[in-house]
Amino acid sequence: MIELAPAPPFVPCEFRVKWAHGDWELDHARRLRRAVFCVEQGVFVGDDTDDIDGHAQLLVAVAHVAGLPEQVVGTVRIHEEAPGRWWGSRLAVHAAFRHHGRIGATLIRLAVGSAHARGCHTFLAHVQAQNVPMFEKLAWTGLADEVLHGRPHRLMQADLTAYPPCHTPYAGHVAASKGRP
Question: What is the pTM assigned to this prediction?
Fold first, then answer.
């Protein structure tokens, strides 16, 4: 009898990063946020929903299998606080997919680029301290250190010259997996 080596763990070839639409994407994005911010990090108890969710646009990173959408593996939300002044918040990537590609970076790129296409002149975020180096690599500048929800954060601003306007946010971008052949 010939023994076969165990199959390697499955890794999707690509992730489509786009504005969420459809109930399943919205539902899965909210579940992912609860898993990351309530269960994994313990930042919130039970639910991380707030007043911003009533008018924010959710973005999702969707794993595709054989060209078909399968699972939301990342999310972020954006909203316009005042004309031209946008915020990003609640960036979350599923723990099992944090090292499969540039999912978080691609979510950030679409968040800023799509706001830029809608007249953004200032894009801000409160970034958890452990994520500041990633944002700095993505052309963000620290403005102030803060404590939010009992955790260190840095108020940061995106350099809009590094983010071309994205006029097709529902099509979005593709992030290739590191596991791609």
Answer: 0.89
- Cβ contacts of 118 within 8 Å, gap of 6 or more: 80, 86
The residues spanned by each domain of the chain are 14-176
3-class state of residue 171 by DSSP: coil
Calpha distance 29→118 (Å, rounded):
23
| 72 in Cβ contact with 62 (< 8 Å) | yes
- According to DSSP, residue 163 is labeled S
Percentage of residues of the chain with pLDDT beyond 90: 76
Which of 36, 170, 8, 52 lies closest to 104, judged by CA?
Answer: 36
CATH fold of the domain at 14-176: Aminopeptidase (3.40.630)
| pLDDT tens-digit map of 88-133 | 999 999 998 888 768 999 999 999 999 999 999 999 999 999 999 9
